[in-house]
Design brief:
Helices cover 53% and strands 4% of the residues. Belongs to the flagella basal body rod proteins family.
Amino acid sequence: MTTISFDNAFGIHDDAMRLRSQRSEVLANNLANADTPGYKARDIDFQAALQEAQGQQEGMAMTASDSGHMTGEGGGGGSPELMYRNPIQPSIDGNTVDTQTEMSKYMRNSMEFQSSFQFLNSSIKGLKDALAGQ
């Protein structure tokens, strides 16, 4: 009897959807604060966060070979690190949100979320068909 491995069936798309959802919240927050004096735009390094999520999922924890090395613990599946965005043209009031840049990044993130969703949907449909013997 063969068992179904959801990690093999879904690949990185479940982690990608979770991270894209978190990134959407960050980008939407930037847009909501576009007129807030002193607000600093934030973002997530999606590629680094996805690699971290995949490394933890596959059990590739970092190990220290010297007592002076960092252990690499503490990131365990939580929220990815938020970084500040470097402004192209900072405003006089200190706000670093560029509405056009944020909208562009938000829309691209939404399209990539939709792509992962469609892949997961078709994978689940394929698994259901396989279980039903079709």
